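Stage II sporulation family protein (Chryseobacterium mucoviscidosis), 91 aa
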Amino acid sequence: HLDREEYVARVLDREAKSTPPEAAKAMTVAIRTFLQQNADREGDCLTIPDSSATQRVSASPATTGARTMTAWTQDLIYAGDPVHYHGSRAT
């Protein structure tokens, strides 16, 4: 079990980088939003498969850079339409 913000940081490490900073901050918001929109709830926990069809999670603890970018955006989610991403286009 991972704390939500540790989860976000580990996905950032696995799927992107913590630089450039503004891109990494935007990515953390997208990761957190995708989790909120697509995870199943089990009590107080959110569950989502570790799959290339969803989000890939680093097995290692998050790097300092990823934790820093995640902390900058802590608890922020995109509150508009659902986020969908495939290949090189977002819809």
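The CA atoms of residues 9 and 66 lie 5 Å apart. Helices lie at 4-15, 21-38, 64-72. ok done for today
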